[in-house]
Amino acid sequence: MALLETMAAGVPAVVTDVGGNPELIKHGETGWVVPSDAVEYLTATILEAAANSAVLRDRAEAARHRFQESFTFKKMISNYSYLYRTMTASR
Hints:
Elements: H1 2-8, E1 13-16, H2 21-24, E2 31-34, H3 39-51, H4 53-70, H5 73-89
Parallel strand pairs: 1-2
Helix pairs in contact: 1-4
């Protein structure tokens, strides 16, 4: 939930490639996804992100937009409803 809240707040994130992180954050678009075992790469990515305010703004806006398009409560309920209707219609 913290990552979704971050996106909703328009904060781009540097995340590791574990769990659902890569499903939420699109590398190079809404944030950065780095391998989970690459501390040096993670550090370099954080420093690069901090040094480029224009990229941070672009990814912040993209993260907020992605949240609004895909992860609001209303959108998730709509998606679940569609999924259930599809599953029950095939029976």
